[in-house]
Specification:
heterodimer, A: 360 residues, mainly alpha, two-stranded antiparallel sheet, 2 strands, globular, B: 504 residues, alpha/beta, Rossmann fold, Fumarate Reductase Iron-sulfur Protein, Chain B, domain 2, five-stranded mixed sheet, four-stranded antiparallel sheet, 16 strands, 37% helix, 16% strand, elongated
């Protein structure tokens, strides 16, 4: 008989080879794509933004480590996959730059513990953790979450210095008046309630400043062009597909165009819509989250259009000036239904799953 | 023939895997492989029933002599790959991941390589088409692309269904493998002759040879060889795994999608591999049955990667020795390509008809990392050529919801490996699917068995009841008879007593 030599070789079915792509490389690329907008945001809003950013990221890693330890899962390797870091990064980008440190900590806690780990960790959550945390913060701490700092870049003469910034973030002592104000969309909403017309409201508005990000807003979401650049790079890298961004932005653009053309005094122009309220951040980085979005191209188109529709509806008729967080969360809850009904057609079968007819 | 390739999407899913073919694609096939002392010839090297041996230990055989005959409709015979002495007919490990024993003929070669002479037709195109498939069947030819379906059966089905198009599969989309590439480069005229014979055997008058566009030399050789024959067209197809999946190739070339459960011949298309066409040429022109094949030996642990023509039954360990495989560097041995091939537990296993390649891969070439959680990136959905959602299937299998996995299309999975290849979380999806398919089959068998047991039990109960009823009936009758007898006896006694009284 032939002897069983070398029987120790591990047997497994194919494919025996694979791509170099891994979870950590995907997360890394997304973070890389976020870097320009983040650096710009940190520069625009100075030391306070940097402190808040660091606090948010560090506490997320801490919470993740504690949860993993409690769940008895490997801590180090999971932390290194970068998913917790990315969640916290995205959350930090949506926070007001002068928010106190505990907003970052509580937000990370919401995101990591309630948004992700209670569902069973990476890949199991129904809702986008960063958006869940942001919305929870917005509802729980409305004042802290809607105090928007003026652009006050690092090392500029009138910007807060490092000690002043330390006090803003860690002691909650805001500088004298005139350092904060409303975002463009928030301002429009307030002025609408005073029955003013858009043409009056927007006298000081600069679309160019908004496009580059020289405006009040969340820590890392102000610069449309840098976010769009990062997002397009992600599409090029095949990390995300074009379906969600295009259908989301397209829907918002289409709807706002229709209403704006009908009544330019009461409906904001499509360009202002796309240019503010973190629209590009949501379209390229938040709504495209793998875990919480559908997994077929058609499903993704539906999902993106749904997000766009809800954003427009909330912004236009809702109580909040920016609707992205709510819109994404609502559509997240639709994702399983999307995946249930929208499936690819199996080879040799029709859409109902029955074999095709033989047709010479 | 005008083909509008863009009329509808003809390519779906797939991956562009790193080809890793350069080690073997430009050097000629080695034909001087030293004849092994012993050849191990399994009786099942094809889809269908195993062949039945017709020789016994101690017989001397010639090269090409029939060793075991085909059993039933779907089966194939096995021939002696060299001349020599039959030394054993017994169970030996099969070239399969399990290496479970399979019935095998062991041939001790005498080194003379004496062919059994078989008369051949001067002009095979004068033979009736049925005769072609008969001879192909008798030569033990099976699909050499790896599927190993008996070729004669396919030729017959093609003829019976009046197939209009014969597709010759020269895609060879698996990484590393170049045996078909080299065959096309070196023996193009013979392959084209085989294609013509197949056309004759099926009564078809149009053939397309489809070659992936990464094999330009093979394409040129085949194109040139096919020039004199108007009925044979040679085309280039995109390089994209799994282009060689028959249904993918059929859709790409003809635009026809084969319904689940149907055979391609029902839609007027038959597909054969280039190696099969070559084997057909050998069988019809020279009367040589399928006794050897070209095998790609490649991988990072192979010192001298090459294509080598070996007799069937050659042990892979001998091939490895010939190609200077470093056993210490070998992390995995694979029969076939790295996408669909099977990992073998060791190399002391024979080369069979379906062995297109034997790979000795190093740890660096493999992807053997820790499985991580699925992040629902849906890459597997994008690459699946069958239109499945591997992630959902795997999630259901993980929680033992096998019926749901079947509803999601488990049985339509072709195990091409694209999903496992692309998964960033290293989830061995195909492994899940193979496990689940096996488990579903086992459960069905178990259910079938329990139903049968139940049926038997019920009929036994009915029988026992009937017997009990019968016995009760008999008992009643017996008792009644007894009572009757006793009554009569009593009556008799009474009359007797009365008589006695009267007398007295």
């Amino acid at each position: 008989m032939i002897s069983y030599a070398k029987a120790h070789l591990k047997v497994r079915s194919g494919a025996h080879i694979g791509t170099k792509t891994s979870i950590s490389s995907i997360m890394g690329k997304v973070m890389l794509a976020l870097t320009p907008a983040t650096i710009f945001g940190l520069f625009c809003f100075g030391w306070s933004a940097i402190f808040l950013f660091i606090v948010t990221l560090t506490s997320a890693l801490f919470f993740e480590a504690v949860c993993l330890k409690l769940a008895g899962r490997p801590v180090k390797s999971t932390l290194l996959d970068g998913s917790a870091l990315l969640t916290a990064w995205l959350l930090a980008m949506t926070l007001p730059p002068y928010a106190p440190w505990w907003i970052g900590v509580v937000g990370s806690g919401f995101a990591i513990i309630l948004g992700k780990q209670v569902y069973g960790g990476l890949g199991q959550n129904l809702f986008n953790p960063a958006m869940l945390a942001r919305v929870a913060l917005l509802i729980s701490f409305p004042i802290e979450m809607t105090t928007w700092a003026n652009v006050s870049p690092l090392f500029f003469p009138h910007s807060p210095d490092i000690m002043e910034s330390w006090r803003i973030t860690f002691a909650g002592i805001l500088p004298s008046d005139g350092m904060t104000g409303a975002t463009t969309l928030g301002y429009i909403k307030t002025e609408f309630s005073q029955h003013r017309l858009l043409t009056d409201i927007l006298q000081d508005y600069s679309s160019v400043a908004n496009f580059f990000g020289w405006t009040r807003g969340s820590l890392g979401e102000t610069s449309t062009i840098l976010l769009a650049g990062g997002g397009l790079w992600l599409i090029r890298q095949k990390i995300i597909s074009w379906h969600i961004p295009v259908s989301l932005l397209g829907t918002v653009f289409l709807l706002s165009s229709v209403f704006h053309l009908m009544d330019a005094n009461h409906y904001v122009s499509p360009f202002l819509h796309l240019n503010s309220g973190a629209m590009f951040c949501v379209a390229f980085f938040i709504a495209t989250d793998y875990v919480t979005s559908p997994n077929t191209p058609t499903g993704q188109l539906v999902f993106g259009a749904g997000c766009g529709l809800l954003i427009f509806v909330i912004r236009t008729w809702g109580a909040y000036p920016e609707g992205a967080g709510f819109a994404v969360l609502l559509m997240n809850s639709v994702t399983p239904v999307c995946d249930y009904y929208i499936k690819p057609r199996i080879y040799g079968r029709d859409r109902q799953g029955k074999p095709l007819e033989i047709n010479k | 023939m005008l083909r509008n390739l863009f009329s509808k999407p003809r390519l779906r899913g797939g991956v562009h895997a790193e080809e890793r073919k350069s080690a073997t694609e430009s050097s000629p096939v080695i034909t001087h492989f030293p004849l092994p002392k012993k050849l191990y010839i399994p009786l099942q090297q094809h889809v269908g029933k195993p062949a039945e041996p017709m020789i016994k230990v101690g017989d001397t055989v010639l090269k090409g002599q029939l060793l075991a005959y085909s059993q039933g409709m779907i089966s194939a015979p096995v021939h002696a790959p060299s001349s020599g002495l039959i030394v054993d007919v017994n169970d030996y490990p099969a070239p399969h991941p399990s290496a479970l024993p399979i019935r095998t003929i062991v041939l001790e070669t005498d080194g003379k390589e004496e062919w059994l002479t078989v008369p051949v037709a001067d002009d095979p195109f004068q033979l009736p088409p049925e005769e072609i498939s008969l001879r192909v069947g008798a030569a033990g030819i099976v699909g050499l692309g790896g599927a190993t379906f008996p070729t004669a059966v396919k030729l017959n089905m093609g003829r019976e269904n009046h197939v209009q198009t014969l597709i010759i599969n020269g895609a060879e989309c698996e990484p590393y493998l170049t045996c078909d590439d080299r065959l096309m480069q070196e023996r193009a005229a013979d392959i084209i002759d085989g294609v013509r014979l197949m056309l004759h055997g099926m009564g078809t008058d149009y053939a397309v040879v489809a070659i992936e566009d990464n094999k330009t030399q093979a394409y040129t050789a085949m194109y040139t060889a096919a020039l004199p024959y108007a009925q044979i067209e040679v085309i280039q197809i995109p390089t994209r795994y799994p282009m060689g999946w028959d249904r993918q190739l059929i859709r790409y070339v003809t635009g026809k999608e084969i319904p689940v459960g149907a055979r391609s011949s029902e839609l007027g298309v038959t597909i054969h591999n280039v190696g099969t066409a070559y084997a057909t040429h050998k069988a019809i022109r020279y009367g040589q049955p399928l006794v050897n094949r070209i095998v790609t030996v490649s991988g990072g642990a192979v010192g001298q990667p090459m294509n080598v023509e070996v007799p069937l039954g050659t042990l892979m360990s001998e091939l490895f020795e010939f190609c200077k495989v470093d056993t210490n560097k070998t992390a995995r041995i694979i029969m076939g390509g790295p996408m669909m091939g099977e990992a073998l537990p060791h190399s002391v296993l024979p080369v069979v008809k379906g062995t297109s390649g034997v790979l000795a891969l190093t740890q660096e070439e493999l992807r053997d990392k820790q499985e991580q959680p699925c992040i629902r990136c849906a890459s597997c959905v994008t690459v699946c050529p069958a239109g499945l959602r591997p992630l959902d299937m795997a999630n259901n299998i993980r929680i033992n919801q096998l019926d749901t996995a079947v509803d999601l299309g488990l049985k339509d999975c072709i195990s091409c490996g694209c999903c496992s290849y692309i998964c960033p979380s290293n989830i061995p999806l195909v492994q899940y699917f193979k496990y689940a398919s096996g488990e579903v089959m086992a459960r069905q068998q178990a259910q079938h068995k329990s139903e049968q047991t139940k049926r038997l039990m019920e009929s036994r109960n009915a029988r026992m009841e009937r017997i009990a009823r019968q016995q009760a009936e008999e008992e009643r009758e017996r008792l009644a008879a007894k009572a009757e007898r006793e009554r009569r006896l009593a009556e008799e006694a009474k009359t007797e007593a009365e008589a006695v009284e009267e007398v007295s």
